[in-house]
Amino acid sequence: MRSHIAAALILAPGLASAAETELASRIDRVTVFPDGAVVTRLGKADLLQGVSQIVLRGLPATIDPASIRVEGKGDGSFSVGAVDVRVTPGDAKPVLDTVLEEKLKTLRDEKEKLSGQIGAIEAKRATIERFAQVGPDKLGPDGKALPVADWPAVFEAIGTALVKVQDELRGTRNRLSDVEAEIAALERARPQASRPGAPKRDVAISVEAPQPVAAEFTVTYRVTGANWTPTYEARLTTTGEKPEIALTRRAEIRQRTGEIWDDVALTLSTTRSAGGTRAPDLVPMQVAFFEPLPTFESRARAVALARKAEAEKAAPAAAAPPNLRFSGGASRDDLAAAAPKPAEVQVAAIEAGAYQANFQVPGRATIPQDGSSKTVTLTQRKVEATLSARTAPELEQKAYLEAGFVHEEEAPLLAGRVALHRDGTYVGMGQFSLVAPGDKVELGFGADDRIKVSFAPVKRRENEPSWLGQTRTDQREFRTVVKSLHAKPVKITVLERIPFSESSGITVETIAAQTTPPTEKQVGDRRGVASWTFDLAPGAEKEIRLAYRIKWPGDRELSFEEQPLPGK
């Protein structure tokens, strides 16, 4: 008779006296999560008559004892009882991965260097923008107006400088993002620091058989030191009858668990096995009047009174140990020991839950245990794309091609990098946020050289207050022209910004008579960013005018500060 039993995990150190038989096993299946893995081992053992123990030796110390599950079956009846998880000494020889550590050090040095470069470039851009705010009407000798004939040269110089510094900033930021992603991937794959005698874990399974039995066991457990990250490739074809995107979803798998994953059945899951299981609890919040901190003199008087009171107390109290105690009755040392700070777990900013999915990798795979990546292809499909162009002429007088499609697969697209190709040419790297089934995706595929964009300040009027309390005004007008050289109509979106204020003393108003009505007065949740969307026929051009006026008290100065994008 064969039996199939799932044993609940029970720690039972008192079973060490039973006869022990080592369970020879091999890893058969592995389910990899973004933050760990569940390993399934298969093993066979000949059970003795009576009570005995089957021992699985040398498992990683990072396994989660609560995740261990044991199943058994055999050619005769037997029962599975308690499961004993033991910590045993590991190999005395330390295992060091100098190549990985040296690579991490090099990447961290490069990250620090790039951060410094970004700061310098942003300072350069701020200087150019402050210069642009002065206006050519004050750039002449002694702060007088510059001749009108010289204004185009000033506008051209400012625009060229801003485009150059923006290109430099974007390239440096992209490189920094690549370096940070590479550092994060290596750190996720790196296990705990090796040390001499690093412990291992043995799993002892208590069994009882009325007669000798040839048994098979399946042992599963969760282990850290493994992860997978999604990568994508999007190939846009515009030369066919309809635009089309060939989207390939891949996974990069890494593991440094200390185990050998050789010829295993591999499953990838989007579920986060180490994340939270429910929403956090909100603690009540009380509002009260602000009480200012005591001044130095009041604190000194309080200290003097406290010392006088202590001196008047009985002497035995002075013999108390110096370990101060809090109102709850626990000392500082007691509290520190009772409430250790949990280690931070690096996790990706994704939603699992309702969007979880599993990918069964075809065939069997071998994943090296040195942390190097193994890439597998998960899905491939072609989707019809809609093309458009987008431009932000204030920053760059250039339009960029965008292709959109609806994600119709059952599994979500997890956040990850995507390699972009346009008509067979690689154009750069993009980024996916989490995309749920049914969501629309928009990807950029590089500059559209068949769309000409020009942007220039047209007029600026700023009054100087002549008496105390007078309101100052700053009126600015801009002109954007977009021309299409395509043979077919093209949809274009122009983005421009208008300063916004949260101060009641500063008023910003759009001058409707001199402004082309926008399609969207506010793009999403980006305050002060408006958009104009239109279809442009072949050879046609579109002019967009924008004018606004800022008013504020004459005795104050303004500052213009760029605000971070939501979610950035």
How would you characterize this protein structure?
- By secondary structure, this protein is of the alpha+beta class.
- The protein is 18% helix and 39% strand.
- It is built from 4 helices and 26 strands.
- It has helices at 98-134, 151-189, 296-312, 332-338; strands spanning 5-7, 19-22, 24-33, 36-47, 50-60, 69-74, 79-88, 200-209, 213-223, 226-237, 244-255, 261-269, 358-360, 365-367, 374-384, 386-391, 399-406, 416-422, 425-432, 440-447, 451-462, 471-484, 490-497, 507-510, 529-536, 541-553.
- Strands 1, 3, 4, 6, 9, 12, 13 and 14 form an 8-stranded mixed beta sheet that branches. The chain has a 5-stranded mixed beta sheet with strand order 15-11-10-18-19.
- Strand 10 (226-237) and strand 11 form a beta hairpin.
- Helix 1 runs antiparallel to helix 2 (151-189).
- The protein is elongated.
- Residues 1-17, 314-337 and 342-355 have low confidence and may be disordered.
